[in-house]
């Protein structure tokens, strides 16, 4: 596979789907200009995230899109030979899911429905049930959404399924209960980076973490998009403002090097875990 350029986005997206699509098109072009083969857009890049996480208003939820939505088809067309991960609200008939799709000009390469939910989100979305990696032209990818990265089992499940790259799509806000005067001092800003680095290091994989920026309703999003190497080192990052973090990584070589002496997956002791 050789060296790969991976891009992770920090940007704002709201309810206007046509505006979101214009922004996605611009980001794809910028990523292509930087030579990126993989672009990870934030959670809810189509339609925006919830405006209130504690008490979501059922009348102002993100627009629900079918799995075969023309918007996803269009993003694949725009992607061409790039691989693009994007988050959206999936219409599944009686329920909706906080979902992600991985697309290219060849169509949908993989799908994921968010498994772990903070309490308020259960009003708006049903929970997904499984973690599965999938093959793409840039390597084997596993996707996580938001709160999933808090749970080591999420990333570990994908790594055990052969994922070389974890695409973590987020609409991760500042602390709702104890907001700091400066975003860099916010508890959630520290945890967001901590989880990204820990999930990459403990599984010895490459991780691309996207996030929303700006505000929606009562929510203020952190940004902090980044690409993390299999040793937990941040290879490229944005801060709180919009931008694209781009890093050049020889994914398989870096993973092989990280696992050469200590291979965390191979040295697990499942029989001792409860």
Automatic annotation (TrEMBL):
The keyword Acetylation does not apply. Residues 4-251 form the CN hydrolase domain. One of its GO terms (molecular function) is hydrolase activity. It holds the Pfam family CN_hydrolase. It comes from the Bacteria. Keywords: Hydrolase. Gene3D superfamilies: Carbon-nitrogen hydrolase. The keyword Transit peptide does not apply. This is Carbon-nitrogen hydrolase family protein. It comes from Prauserella oleivorans.
């Amino acid at each position: 596979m050789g060296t790969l350029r991976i891009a992770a986005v920090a940007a704002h997206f709201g309810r206007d789907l046509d505006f979101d699509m214009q922004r996605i098109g611009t980001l794809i072009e910028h990523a292509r200009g930087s030579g990126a083969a993989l672009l990870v857009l934030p959670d809810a890049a189509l339609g925006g995230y919830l405006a209130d996480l504690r008490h979501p208003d059922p009348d102002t939820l993100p627009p629900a899109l079918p799995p075969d939505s023309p918007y996803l088809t269009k993003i694949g067309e725009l992607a061409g030979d790039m691989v693009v991960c994007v988050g959206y609200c999936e219409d599944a008939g009686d329920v909706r899911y906080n979902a992600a799709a991985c697309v290219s000009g060849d169509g949908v390469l993989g799908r994921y429905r968010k498994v772990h939910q903070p309490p308020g989100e259960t009003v708006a979305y049903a929970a997904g049930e499984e973690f599965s990696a999938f093959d793409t032209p840039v390597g084997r990818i596993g996707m996580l959404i938001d709160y999933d990265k808090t749970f080591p089992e999420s990333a570990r499940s994908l790594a055990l399924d052969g994922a070389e790259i974890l695409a973590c799509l987020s609409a991760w806000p500042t602390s709702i209960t104890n907001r700091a005067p400066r975003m860099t001092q916010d508890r959630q800003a520290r945890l967001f980076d901590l989880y990204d680095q820990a999930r990459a290091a403990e599984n010895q994989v490459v991780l691309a973490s996207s996030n929303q920026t700006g505000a929606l309703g009562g929510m203020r999003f952190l940004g902090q998009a980044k690409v993390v190497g299999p040793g937990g080192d941040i290879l490229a990052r944005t801060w709180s403002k919009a931008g694209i973090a781009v890093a050049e990584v020889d994914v398989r070589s870096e993973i092989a090097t990280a696992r050469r002496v200590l291979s965390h997956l191979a040295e697990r002791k499942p029989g001792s875990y409860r």
